[in-house]
């Protein structure tokens, strides 16, 4: 895993108990290993089939029941096509040179930017992907609903083996600036796993289920969001929770930093957005949209949301106020969205085999009809 020499982790079925695994090896035996299909059968395949079926039904209902059915969708700038089915997750590398997508059947793809050249990484798992994330130094980490973790290191996308928790990983962050780097995993059962080169620890996050996490720029604070709607601040040095806010009435879908890290935004499945002061742990401003926020990004003075109603919404954030600048109707429910660091381009996935690229031009006339 390059510089990420972390302990392998396996979480037992008993709360709080950790059975240490093997130290991750960077020997050549782990290099250039193709990613094969695991060949799980029975219940796992049934679960995948049910998940894909539910997504297909949701798309059909969206098309026939959506009030926007008569509105003409905007054409994307470009479509990045693949043979994958039901792409649901996206992640863009910190340096902007790679875009990863993952499917409900566990397939993982990587496009090289800016040329948009496709690399088929392979079949990571047979279960729906629940987490896809790049580390600051180019490690692509993928987790699925069965608790399996897989990883690939840039630039060759060499595979590393990770002994995995037996609970779905739903969030991931990296404490990159420490002398001994740490990987933190948020689990669907509400626990957080911290992994470094010497040990693996488990703690209760205070959430019913962890949905998203952020690490402050000074590496001192972890901010987490949960399925019950709470935002929690955790101080690493004090090793305790230092703040809790019940700012949402339903599950929080995503978190995103402001460019300077002084603020962050949270968004939920009711379409509510909340902007928070990072250090003071206070609500700064809020806004709402007609449908659920499925994905979230903050670039320069704009917040970009992807939504189940098929819209990309661009919010202006000036003078600590949120104002809708414009929206783009894509015609399909947005499962995930990422924005390039320049803020000029967004990528979305909508439950089929394509990644769609959109131009977020400043001063664009509103297409929202809202």
What does the model show?
By secondary structure, the chain is mainly beta. The chain has one domain (about 40-360): Methylamine Dehydrogenase, Chain H (7 Propeller). It contains 1 helix and 30 strands. Residues about 5-50, about 60-65 and about 365-370 have low confidence and may be disordered.
Intertermini distance: 47 Å
Shape: globular
Query: Would you state the CATH class?
Result: Mainly Beta
Helix fraction bin = under 10%
> How does the major sheet shape up?
4 strands, antiparallel
CATH topology title: Methylamine Dehydrogenase, Chain H
CATH homologous superfamily classification: YVTN repeat-like/Quinoprotein amine dehydrogenase
Would you identify the regions where 5 or more consecutive residues have pLDDT less than 50?
Answer: 5-48, 58-67, 365-369
Q: Which percent band covers the strand fraction?
A: over 45%
Oligomer: single chain
How are the strands of the biggest sheet laid out side by side? 3-30-29-28
Question: What is the count of structural domains?
Answer: 1
Using the 3D structure, state the CATH architecture: 7 Propeller
SS elements, strand count: 30
Feature tags:
single chain, 370 residues, mainly beta, Methylamine Dehydrogenase, Chain H, 4-stranded antiparallel sheet, 6% helix, 48% strand, globular, disordered C terminus
Task: Please give the structural blueprint.
Blueprint: E1 7-11, E2 18-23, H1 43-65, E3 78-81, E4 87-92, E5 98-103, E6 107-112, E7 117-123, E8 129-134, E9 139-144, E10 149-153, E11 158-161, E12 169-175, E13 182-187, E14 191-195, E15 200-204, E16 210-215, E17 221-226, E18 231-235, E19 240-245, E20 252-257, E21 263-268, E22 272-277, E23 282-288, E24 293-299, E25 302-307, E26 311-318, E27 321-329, E28 336-339, E29 345-349, E30 354-359
